[in-house]
Structures are given as C-alpha cells and as structure tokens.
Amino acid sequence: MNREILNRTLSDEDIGRIKNAAQGMGYTDLDVIDKGGAAFVFSATQSDGRKVALKLLQPPYDEKWLRRFRQEAEVLSRLSHPHLVQVFPPGLQEVANYTMFSMEYVDGISFKRYLTDQGPLEEKWHYGFFVE
C-alpha cells in the first residue's frame, strides 16, 4: 500500500481548486466529509438540487490505483441493493487533477467511525451484513 497516498491531506489551496472545478461541473456546497485509504469524500449538491457524495482519488496515483478506483465505480454502478450506495452517471470524471465519481449521499457516520466508537461487531452481526 502506498503510504504517501494514505498520509496525504488536502491543503486549503487543493480544496479551493476542487470546489472551483466542481462548480464548473454543476456541483455546489462542497464540504469535506472524510478521508479513506486512497480517496477523499465530499458532500455536494448537484444542479438539480440532489445531495451527493463525491469520491476523489488522491494523487499521486499509479495505474493500479486508478484501475481499482475505476473498477469500484463500475461495479457499484451495476449493483442495486438497499445497503449499497448508488453511483450516478456519468461515471469517472476529472476535477482539478483528481479522478472522481458521484454517488448517493447517506447521512450519518461511516462504518469505520462506528467501529471506532462501538468496538468490534459481535459475530451475529457479521452474518447479517452478508445475508441481507
């Protein structure tokens, strides 16, 4: 795993460039939500008023990271399940030197945060996540 990617943070300048570029694509009200292993997630509002989450792959990244990110967006866009977020067209886009995709916004805390706050899940919960 690329530690440079995992330790990357966004500067105010980065955020400004991302917000400006996203506004040109019809997204407003951008706000950083979280940082995952290789991506940042922003909340935003589309021009039609729908609240979305924008997932941006953190540069610098190599072809392997880009392929994984593209695969994630493609797989999620083909799946439909109440426990999975929906990925919206047009799929991968470039915004201020970041590769991103738009997906359903779900209000609440991340699963990572839930585990940090609550501790490990009891075994009975593991089964429930995969069966539903």
What does this structure look like?
By secondary structure, the protein is an alpha+beta fold. It has a single domain, classed as Phosphorylase Kinase, domain 1 (2-Layer Sandwich), CATH 3.30.200. Helix content is 38%, strand content 29%. The protein has 5 helices and 5 strands. The protein has a 5-stranded antiparallel sheet with strand order 1-2-3-5-4. A hairpin with a 3-residue loop joins strand 1 and strand 2. The longest helix is centred in the middle third of the chain and has 16 residues. The two termini are 31 Å apart. The N terminus is likely disordered.
Major pleated sheet: 5 strands, antiparallel
Give the rounded overall mean pLDDT. 82
- Strand order, biggest sheet? 1-2-3-5-4
Structural class by helix and strand composition: alpha+beta
In a nutshell, what does this entry contain?
This protein is of the alpha+beta class and 132 residues long. Helices cover 38% and strands 29% of the residues. It has 5 helices and 5 strands; from the N terminus they run ααβββαββαα.
Topology:
Blueprint: H1 3-6, H2 12-24, E1 28-35, E2 39-45, E3 51-57, H3 63-78, E4 87-95, E5 98-104, H4 111-118, H5 123-131
Considering the chains and any ligands shown, give keywords for the structure.
single chain, 132 residues, alpha+beta, Phosphorylase Kinase, domain 1, 5-stranded antiparallel sheet, disordered N terminus
